[in-house]
Design a protein that fits this description.
- This protein has 628 residues and is an alpha+beta fold.
- The chain folds into 3 domains: 235 residues, Neuraminidase (6 Propeller), CATH 2.120.10; 238 residues, SGNH hydrolase (Rossmann fold, 3-Layer(aba) Sandwich); 121 residues, Immunoglobulin-like.
- Strands 28, 30, 31, 32, 33, 35 and 36 form a 7-stranded mixed β-sheet that branches. Strands 1, 2, 3, 4, 18 and 19 form a 6-stranded antiparallel β-sheet that branches. Strands 9, 10, 11, 12, 13 and 14 form a 6-stranded antiparallel β-sheet that branches.
- A hairpin with a 6-residue loop joins strand 11 and strand 12.
- The relative contact order is 0.08.
């Protein structure tokens, strides 16, 4: 079917009063639009500079990432989705913007981000679904000064139809293209004129650098006209994801050229304040249900694929890649705990990947390795594009079942939160996905284990400040990858390994020099230590507290000064790096200190966990003395 606006007597959506110009009077080379709480802001780019922002929409409903395009004579137009489900539009009248027009009012349905094209008319397309069902593609055209009621672009098919794009042609013709699941993979379908979208081409010189310098959000949409005369549009997020994939390709090439031995326990033991960069080998036969520890052959090799997006790859960490991503730290935990067995983690994280892309990639990855298990964590990028939860769940299910059919144990994961203040819309979407129990339901229905990464992150006090990379807002930092994500994966897969292992908590002892002391003297304390056979329990925050005779409790801070604040003397400490015994503290007794019995407590708490939750403790010791 050829969709044309002339067939339904569509008039132009925007009055074009000359070419759009910037505040400086020069024709802009590009335009950018981005959300700012309840506003949509637009800026032009010309001669290497961005104009001051123009507010084209402000209201009570927060707005998602807008779609931006250029129409005839390079006049910009914007369409966007707000969190009430309305799709809105505004076009430029030269020096001003039209008041927001409602393209499709909310109908209580889930909608994805809209796509927009303006030729002889304006066309907006979007994916829409009832809650809990798959999307269909709808569009609307402005006719006789009004937006026509939403029109379905295809017959009902009860499969996911997602991520539409629109291309405008001559004489009111246009084409809508989208991804549709055919039962095996996602294929491209289209309705309307057979107009192919142009290649992206080159960005205007200096535009990307200026956007990064201005610290515009990744939801920013860019629009410019290519050398061939066709308009181009892209999200800043997509450009950055593209850069990540290129960089990842270079990193993988280097990894293949350089041997990357599995680290030993000694190599993974570091004192407080340092980070171990654990190499990743360039590459469990686990059971389908947890088993009791049984005898197993010595020296078994177990390969596990880590499959996902840039979070799996390791973005946001100190190396910004696999050397400090969760697969590297997980590999170290497994090799320490289960020696002499050898675990190899294969990092197959691809920046910017959405679940539909992962579904198209997973077969080739499974066929490339004779792996025993695969850890699947995807969906963060789907939350950005507002893909329906049902579609994300279906894609994850398909990936997991394809692995299982090949004899590879699949393990899923809930998504980690984004930084709420930096990515509020994506944070709320991800929280709703978790609260809806979509991954959890797959686990119940199909017996697929899952790592509850959302809960693991959110259970850490001040998780955003402690665990997240603030440069991106959706990736962990080293703390997040090493002390939370990797241990959560480990604790999920350990019951399925079928390997004998009985974790033992570290043993710590505390002794005072004398049991009775006078004012003005010094009480010495020493410690003894036997680390755990479990690396997870060896990564700790160390708290030392002193209880006074009246029952008041004081903590020693990192400078060994007493404070009422609950603070550790050491954070992210690896017990395997410490001497097995030694002096701990010289405590001077002041002349003014009260007489009575004092108690000193030494507590090791799993790194970054709440010390007031005793379930987070891995070791405890105490010693008492009396001041006479």
């Amino acid at each position: 079917m050829k969709l044309t606006v002339t067939a339904i007597a569509v008039t132009m959506c925007v009055t074009l009063v000359g070419s759009a110009v910037s505040a400086r009077g020069a024709a802009p080379e590009a335009w950018v639009a981005y959300p700012d709480n309840d506003r949509i802001l637009v800026r032009s780019f010309s001669a290497g500079s961005l104009s001051e922002p123009s507010v084209i929409a402000a209201g009570a409903a927060a707005s998602f990432a807008p779609a931006l395009t250029l129409g005839p004579r390079d006049v910009p137009s914007v369409a966007w989705l707000n969190n009430e489900g309305d799709i809105l539009f505004s076009g430029s009248y030269g020096s001003r913007w039209s008041a927001p027009e409602v393209v499709a009012p909310s109908a209580g349905r889930h909608r994805g981000l809209p796509a927009l094209a303006v030729g002889d008319s304006a066309v907006v397309a979007w994916a829409e679904s009832e809650r809990g069902s798959f999307e269909d593609i709808f569009y609307s055209v402005k006719a006789s000064g009004r937006w026509c009621p939403p029109i379905r672009a295809h017959e009902e098919n009860r499969v996911p139809d997602i991520l539409p794009s629109v291309v405008a042609g001559a004489h009111g013709a246009f084409s809508i293209r989208w991804k549709s699941f055919d039962g095996l993979n996602y294929i491209e379908r289209y309705a309307g004129a057979p107009i192919s979208p142009p290649e992206r081409g080159e960005l205007p010189q200096g535009l990307l650098e200026k956007l990064l310098e201005a610290k515009l959000p990744i939801e920013t949409s860019l629009a410019w006209r290519g050398a061939d005369g066709f308009p181009r549009s892209v999200y800043l997020k997509q450009l950055l994801d593209e850069q990540e994939r290129i960089a990842a390709g270079e990193d993988r090439a280097q990894t293949l050229d350089e041997p990357t031995p599995t680290p030993t326990a000694a190599e993974t033991s570091t004192p407080l304040g340092t980070q171990t960069e654990i190499p990743v080998a360039p590459t469990f036969t686990p059971t389908e249900t947890p088993v009791e520890n049984t005898a197993t052959p010595v020296g078994r090799r177990i390969d596990i694929i880590a499959f996902g997006d840039s979070i799996t790859y390791g973005r946001g960490s100190s190396s910004n890649g696999p050397r400090t991503g969760y697969p590297a730290f997980l590999q170290a935990i497994l090799n320490y705990n289960y020696a002499p067995n050898t675990f190899h983690l294969i990092n197959e994280g691809v920046g910017g990947e959405e679940t539909w892309m992962g579904l198209g990639r997973i077969n080739s990855v499974l066929d490339s390795y004779h792996a025993d298990g695969i850890l699947i964590m995807e969906g963060t990028n789907d939350m950005f594009f507002q893909v329906s939860f049902a579609t994300v769940q279906e894609n994850l299910k398909q990936m997991a079942l394809r692995a299982r059919r090949r004899g590879v144990l699949p393990v899923l994961a809930t998504l980690i939160p984004t930084v709420p203040s930096l990515r509020p819309v994506q944070y709320q979407e991800t929280r709703s996905f978790y609260a809806g129990g979509y991954v959890q339901a797959l686990s119940r229905s199909y017996g697929i284990p899952y790592a509850d990464q959302w809960n693991a992150f959110c259970s850490i006090p001040y998780f955003a400040e402690v665990l997240m990379d603030w440069a991106t807002g959706n990736h962990p930092n080293d703390n997040g990858y090493r002390y939370v994500m990797a241990p959560e994966w480990y604790e999920t897969i350990a019951p399925y390994l079928g390997l004998p292992f009985t974790p033992v908590s570290p043993k710590i002892g505390l002794a005072e020099s004398v049991q009775s002391v006078t004012r003005g003297a010094v009480e010495d304390f020493s410690y003894t230590l036997v680390p755990s056979n479990d690396m997870v329990r060896n990564a700790v925050d160390c708290y030392v507290a002193l209880a006074w005779p009246d029952g008041s409790l004081f903590f020693f801070n990192s400078g060994w000064q007493l404070t009422k604040q609950t603070t550790p003397v050491s954070r992210n400490l690896l017990l395997t790096a410490l001497p097995r015994s030694g002096a701990l503290l010289e405590l001077p007794i002041a002349q003014s200190d009260p007489l009575g019995v004092y108690s000193l407590y030494l507590v090791t708490v799993r790194s970054l966990r709440d010390p007031w939750v005793t379930g987070n403790w891995t070791g405890f010791a105490s010693a008492s003395f009396e001041v006479r």
